[in-house]
Every structure is written in structure tokens, then in C-alpha cells.
Amino acid sequence: MVSSDATTVAEYLAEISEDRREDVEAVRDLVLENLPDGYVETMRWGMITYEVPLETFSDTYNGKPLMFIALAAQKRHLALYLTNVAFVQGGEEAFKTKYLKTGKKLDMGRSCLRFKSVDDLATEVIAESINSMPIDEFVRQYEVSRTAR
Hints:
It contains six helices and five strands. By secondary structure, it is of the alpha+beta class. It has a single domain, classed as Aspartate Aminotransferase, domain 1. Helix 2 packs across helix 5. The relative contact order is 0.16.
């Protein structure tokens, strides 16, 4: 995994090659347009992250804010981490089913959606996934996932 030492999103974007930056910015815009209230954009773990502030929920397993979404330019691909898909029981299967119905190729691990260009993405499915998880529901799903272990 390629990691960045950038401390701001602007610094991170400036580090990325121009051709990849356009795709990262387009996906960032998609996330921001669909991000429910309460989440904050920041840099964490060398990626652009959208997270639950500790002021909202601090009882995390590592003392860090809960990551909702992350966006990164990796060495061979771009990655969108959709942790909400992994938290919800049956969420991963439902997401993959909707995604594949669009006819777009799906390259996804548990929550990591890998892609080369924004044109490769089923943006409407991603937007729906992001928009459908208000911060209080995300925290609730996180707590359910932690007690299920």
C-alpha cells in the first residue's frame, strides 16, 4: 500500500500525478456530494478519510476516529474503502449485487473497491451506499459489529 505523509487533502492531491489526480478529485467530489452530515474529511493512514469525529463517538477499538470512507492512490490502482459495506450484515453481498447489475466490472475485497479510473465505477451505487448511512446508524452498526465478535 502506498502511503502519504501529507497532512492536508490539498497536499495529498498535489502529490498525485495529474492524470490520477483528476480521477481522485472526481471520486472525492462524489463522496462529498453524498456524505451525510457529521462526518469530517481529513488525512489519516496516508489517505483521504471521511470519519466520525471523536467528539461524536470516542469508544473505538484503537482510540482513533471511526473511518467511514477512505480514498487513496495506490501504486497500481485507486482505492475507495467503503467500511459501511463491511459493517452491515449482508451489506457486502447487497452492494456487490447492485454493483454488478450496472454492468461495471467489480474488483473488490471486503471493503476495498479497486479501480483505474472514475469511469470504471458504478457511481450511482457508490453514492447510494454513502448517502444511506447517517452517522448515528454507522456508529450503531460499528457497535453491533464489535459485539458480534
